[in-house]
Amino acid sequence: MSTNAAALGKQRTPVRPARILLHTFLVVTALAWLAPLLWAVFAALRPYSETSTKGYVSWPDKLSLDNFKNAFEQSDMLHYFGNTLIIAVPAVLITLLLSSMVAFYVSRFDFRLNIFLLLVFTAGNLLPQQVIITPLYRMYLLIDLPGITVSGKLYDSALGLVLIHVAFQSGFCAFVLSNYMRMLPHELTEAALVDGASVWRMYWQIVLPLCKPAMAALATLLSIWIYNDFFWAIVLISTGENMPITSALNNLSGQYFTDPNLIAAGALLTAIPTLIVYFVLQRQFVSGLTLGANKG
Amino acid sequence: MSIDATKTREAAAMPPPGTASTKKRVPQGHKRLLTRRDRITLGFMAGVPTVLHVALVWVTALASIALAFTSWDGIGFSSIKWVGLDNFKQLFTDNPQFWPAVEHNIIWFVVLIAVPTPLGLFLAVQLDKKIRFSRVYQTAFFLPVVVSLAVTGFVWQLVYNPDTGLINSLIGANKPGHYIDWIGDPHLNLWAVLIAASWRHTGYMMILYLAGLKGVDPSLREASSLDGANEWQTFKNVIFPTLRPTNTVVLVVTIIEALRAFDLVFVFNKGAQGTELLSILITNNIIGESSRIGYGSAIAVVLLVISLAVIIPYLIATFRKERRA
Prior knowledge:
Chain A is mainly alpha-helical. Chain A has helices at about 1-10, 15-45, 50-55, 65-75, 75-110, 115-125, 130-140, 160-180, 185-195, 200-210, 210-230, 230-235, 245-255, 260-280, 280-290. Chain A has 15 helices and no strands.
């Protein structure tokens, strides 16, 4: 049937004028879509001295990477990238571990509370973050962790951010993974059970390896979401030095960046890691998004 | 959409841990095969994530509800006072920012559903035609979804800036006396932010619809073209009706995006004058100077109620369908 459809599609292609029109439309729209980003690149490549006299819409005399270099050095961006790394890496790994355990539980064993449990997780993930922030903020201020975090509290610590990311995102991942695990043949785990394998072994050595494609897709999505987080960091981190890169940018733009060209360079630098992840793992990213299309 | 997993009933019928005293189902099949240790392991596997999620998400959501009926300055628990419905009364009648915020959240939703959603669907239909360079076009439309909203905010400021921005430079409004202050003008700034938000939302909708279109049975199209239907008729009568599950997801996603909207506005102008949103009002209550916790929580409860009114029916319908499958 699909070969039929493909053959039919091939026969229909020679409607040339329509195709040319379509491509023209798509090229124009795509360029318009990229315009804000291209404009930022253009501004970032030009020195402030030039744009301040000639204006921004003008033919460039000189294009250089100086703004990128200055933005990177002046604002100590490496430090903020480091902050993001120590939050995002554990958060992604722990989220995948915990949510796959819940998913395993609800998808391979028929407990009466399963649906309810999954509902609790999924609904929690769909809530706007601001609904829970006030008590969460107070709770983080109350929890003392002397010696464990630099601030001595859960507030203003990388640990605090990791925890909330894990709690929040595991709702989505548990939902996606449980659907995925449900599609695995039951004979696999049944045979293992009959052979006397422990539940942990079934999870760790049989089910989890089979979930690799879904896990890869989720890992890509999670890294981009957690990297891009702005809200939790803005509210739960008070020391500018401790901020991850996206929210630090908000501070930096006032403190160090004096001209729009430098801000453009800083913003673009911040976007680079997500763009790399996207271009390298495009397929995983897109399949992840549609795996759980109910993500808000 | 992704929820068409065929659920085969697992034979293991075991009560959830901790409810051993409640009436058990007829033990059958695998129950005997699960050792005590297995049950403890399972308890941990489900318990640890659940405790973390419930403690940080649901307990705090309930705490928001409780705090909404109190007045508290945040300094010591002794200053918590029960005030009943006062916060809500004040919110609905006195706060000059509340109703505009509600209105802006609604406008946000209406704009997202009216502009980028059909546009995303249109682009998806075009890109689904097996044309050349489809991947390149997809990437162009999709990049805004990958870049963080905060960064998007900075990029769009470069477009909207009164004297150095792209728009004013192009239309010659970047000279003193001619300024159009896209971000500062309370009549313009909401629309300016919404253009940036729509820019991002279109790519997201396109991907969801592309995935939906992949699921359309090719023989349907074939049959329709054999019947002599043109492209528009085929879309209207054959393709669009089969996209119903995708449309539901799109609707829910869009409502939630509209309720969650925050980053863009915060980076633009912190929600001052003309761009107030419920999420911004709550946040300003925490990181701003005034710490009126009960009052901020009352706004959070409004947001919670609206969100749950959308989320719960949607999830129940989804899970019910899954159970039937």
